[in-house]
């Protein structure tokens, strides 16, 4: 990269801890492997070869909330599913982030009725909302990049 | 239409005195609640209707009285024909006997009818909700059940609705 010539033989890079940690966090996010509805299909195609989510260091979807730090709520959340979703969120270790993927997860979408939670932000705190029904893989990637930007800008006092 | 269905309908009509209806080649029998178990038993054992293919209910409120019809769809594997049963149930604490003893798969179907319409099945082994959460109030597929709409946020009323909405904390 050329940086090693400038550094000489010191073998060390100095930078702020905040930047180093945020860089590491944002470039190795482990999303949780779960989908609730049709948005999950788009999420799968985002991971597949055409869109290739592994370019952003997050090709590994963990099937356990204990091993993941990003929850992508892909689909509508029914009132019966809501406590399950909250439990999964509570089981994730800090730091953790939530993306509400699609209209249903963001605001209830077309399901404005008794059975569907009107926006998953009633159940878990959401960092990024992605519009679309369902969002295209580009939109999901854009949402994830937005979240990466947010993580890189986090202050050390707000860390968990 | 199959001979077997017509014969069956005629025979059941004679034996139980029930009304028979036909619509575009589909035969259905209107059975009173207290006879449903015997009719199902007879259809299964003597006429080869060995599969309860479906069981559901319809709410005709406010157009009809009695307001509910519980509907059974029976299928005959050996004859490859179907027959329908309709049981009118009135809306005041609706209840009818379970057919779980005849068709064990009625267990979950009747739980769903209880959950969605509030029709109880006497003698059912496990009369709990199946789709909605256990602490849910009301029965959503009844015609007088409110849809539970949330008001749509526009620019002019965004802040007002946003203020009412509760957001989750960490």
Structure, described:
The complex is a heterodimer of chains A (160) and B (170). With 160 residues, chain A is mostly helical. Chain A contains 6 helices and 3 strands; from the N terminus they run αααβαβαβα. Chain A has a single domain (32-151), classed as Rossmann fold, CATH 3.40.50.12280. Chain A has helices spanning 3-7, 17-27, 39-47, 82-91, 102-107, 137-152, and strands at residues 70-74, 97-101, 128-130. In chain A, helix 2 runs antiparallel to helix 6 and helix 3 crosses helix 6. Chain A starts with a helix and ends in an 8-residue tail after the last helix. Chain B has a single domain, classed as Beta Polymerase, domain 2 (2-Layer Sandwich), CATH 3.30.460. Chain B has helices spanning 3-16, 36-47, 106-117, 158-164, and strands spanning 19-23, 26-30, 51-59, 68-76, 81-89, 95-97, 120-122. The longest helix of chain B is centred in the N-terminal third of the chain and has 14 residues, at 3-16. Chain B is elongated and about 65 Å long. The termini of chain B are far apart. The A-B interface holds A 79-80, 86, 107-108, 112-115, 118-119, 121-125 and B 131-133, 140, 145-150, 152-153, 165-170.
What is the radius of gyration of chain A? 18 Å
Largest sheet of chain A: 3 strands, parallel
Regions with little confidence, pLDDT below 50 for 5+ residues of chain A? none
Whole-angstrom Rg of chain B: 21 Å
* Distance N to C terminus of chain A: 33 Å
Helix content of chain B: 25-40%
Number of helices of chain A: 6
Poorly predicted regions of chain B are none
* Integer count of domains of chain B: 1
The 3D shape of chain A can be described as elongated
Kindly give the count of domains of chain A.
1
Q: Roughly what fraction of the amino acids of chain B lie in strands?
A: 25-35%
Largest interface: A-B, 16 and 18 residues
* Residue share in β-strands of chain A: 5-15%
Structural class by SSE content of chain A: mainly alpha
Assembly type of the chains comes to heterodimer
Fourth CATH level, the homologous superfamily of chain B: NADH:ubiquinone oxidoreductase Nqo5 subunit
């Amino acid at each position: 990269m050329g940086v090693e010539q400038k550094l000489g033989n010191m073998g060390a890079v100095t930078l702020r801890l905040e930047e180093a940690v945020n860089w590491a966090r944002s470039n190795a996010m482990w999303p949780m492997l779960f989908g609730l509805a049709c948005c999950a299909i788009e999420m799968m195609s985002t991971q597949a070869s055409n869109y290739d989510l592994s370019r952003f260091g997050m090709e590994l979807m963990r099937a356990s909330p204990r091993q993941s730090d990003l929850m992508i709520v892909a689909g509508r959340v029914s009132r019966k599913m809501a406590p399950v979703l909250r439990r999964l969120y509570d089981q994730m270790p800090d730091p953790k982030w939530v993306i509400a993927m699609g209209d249903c997860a963001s605001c209830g979408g077309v399901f404005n009725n008794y059975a569907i939670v009107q926006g998953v932000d009633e159940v878990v705190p959401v960092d990024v909302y992605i519009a679309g029904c369902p969002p295209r893989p580009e939109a999901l990637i854009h949402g994830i990049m937005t979240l990466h930007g947010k993580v890189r800008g986090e202050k050390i006092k707000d860390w968990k | 239409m199959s001979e077997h269905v017509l014969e069956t309908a005629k025979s059941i009509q004679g034996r139980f005195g029930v009304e028979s209806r036909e619509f575009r080649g589909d035969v259905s029998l209107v059975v009173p609640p207290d006879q449903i178990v015997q009719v199902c038993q007879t259809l299964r054992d003597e006429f080869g209707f060995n599969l309860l293919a479906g069981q559901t209910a319809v709410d005709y409120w406010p157009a009809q009285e009695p307001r509910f019809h519980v509907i059974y769809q029976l299928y005959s594997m050996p004859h490859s024909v179907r027959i329908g049963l309709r049981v009118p149930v009135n809306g005041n604490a609706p209840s009818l006997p379970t057919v779980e003893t005849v068709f064990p798969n009625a267990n979950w179907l009747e739980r769903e009818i209880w959950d969605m319409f509030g029709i109880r099945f006497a003698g059912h082994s496990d009369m709990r909700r199946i789709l909605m959460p256990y602490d849910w109030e009301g029965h959503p597929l009844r015609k007088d059940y409110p849809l539970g709409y949330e008001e749509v946020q526009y620019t002019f009323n965004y802040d007002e609705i946003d203020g009412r909405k509760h957001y989750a904390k960490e």
